[in-house]
Amino acid sequence: MLLKRVVSTAALIGIIIASIIVQWLFNLMILAFIAIGLYEFFTMLEKKGISIYKYFGIGMGCIIPLSVMFRFELTKRWEFLFIVLTLLILIVMQFKRRKNSGVIVDISTTLFGILYVAWLFSFLIKIRYLPGGTGLFVALLLMTKLGDIGAYLVGSIMGKTPLMPRISPKKTVEGAIAGLAFSIIGAFISNAFLNFDTSHLILLGLSMGVLGQLGDLSESLIKRDCEVKDSGKILPGMGGILDEIDSLLFTAPVFYFYVSTLIK
Questions:
Q1: With the C-alpha atoms ordered 55, 114, 16, 27, is the resulting torsion angle positive or negative?
Q2: Which residues pair with 168 in a beta bridge?
Q3: Which residues contact 236 (CB under 8 A, 6 or more apart)?
């Protein structure tokens, strides 16, 4: 299991490094992660007996990052228009159902998956398109993933106090505190790309640490509800794509708005 985890980690790092260097590879990586993440999310919900519109959801979800990549804006509030259109299409699709039961759940969960995975993760593309976007993307990864690593290492070695055993039995208070500290350290390491003052670095690192852990706990809550251990098996020893990007789903949007405000 350890060997599989090391190989999967090395492969992911290789893909990320290549995507940092090559713009089109970065876009392809984000698109692939969104498509696979949506597939994993919808598959988990299918195990609960929910009639998810899986491939419709994946297709609509992929339109979001593609629209960002090609800078397509039908209106200034294109994303909200897209959400409304998606909802309308989902409602129309219900007219073919033989039974009325489960309509609200099916529509809600399909739309939630698109927003949760596709919309939130597409903020990574928006970050990359900002001035100095490559460095900003690296900074976000450092703060978010160092927080994940710190929480895992310290929690595994020194963790004794359960954080939220109902949601994630292995997470501990000690690990959570360490994760916050590592995220702040990541912010200071990232200052080569950010050039922020100390107060901004501490606030940003702390925010990314808290949001990253909330993202992780949120996905754990979903997996608990679906009664699965991992979101998928595409990464041997690590689980699914959704297991690896869950913390970024919450940190990316906040980081984008925080940094874009300062840049202006």
A1: positive
A2: 164
A3: 4, 5, 7, 8
